[in-house]
Amino acid sequence: MNAFEYAVLYAVPRVDRGERINVGVIVYCQPLDYLGAATHVDAARLQALDTGVDVGAVCAAVDAVRAVCAGEGPSAASPKGDRFRWLTAPRSTVVQPGPVHAGITDSPEAEQERLLDRLVR
Q: Is 21 exposed, middle or buried (0-12, 13-18, 19+ CB in 10 A)?
């Protein structure tokens, strides 16, 4: 068993109102050198919070998180732990990370899918 950390990604269509829905999870497992993000953006749920939400912009922000996890772009040279900490730092944007939680797993990929099913879908 290996320790891992995860955070839920929230979509906050109107930051001033603070309403949010879960749109993904980020999983980091240092012992297995794993960093990944799994996402699911439900446009209808987002539009229920704000009919004027730019769903494309939310999807682009979520895709950017997945790209950072995959080591694409300027972050490619950064260690996975640094990328996880940067992604989970508090921010006031349309896509925000929740608090970091910990657990143990043999498979961070399977844990990521389980968390996505349990917390997002």
A: middle
Asked whether the predicted pLDDT for residue 19 surpasses 90, the reply is yes
How much is the average pLDDT of 81-102?
Answer: 95
Both tokens of 62, joined, read 């979520």
68: closest CA among 105, 97, 47? 97
Type of residue numbered 65: V
Cβ-contact 98, 11 below 8 angstroms: no
Q: Which H or E run contains 65?
A: helix 55-69
Question: Is 22 in a helix, a strand, or coil?
Answer: strand
**87 contacts 100 by C-beta, under 8 angstroms:** no
pLDDT over 90 at 91, yes or no: no
pLDDT band at 80 (very low <50, low <70, confident <90, very high): very high
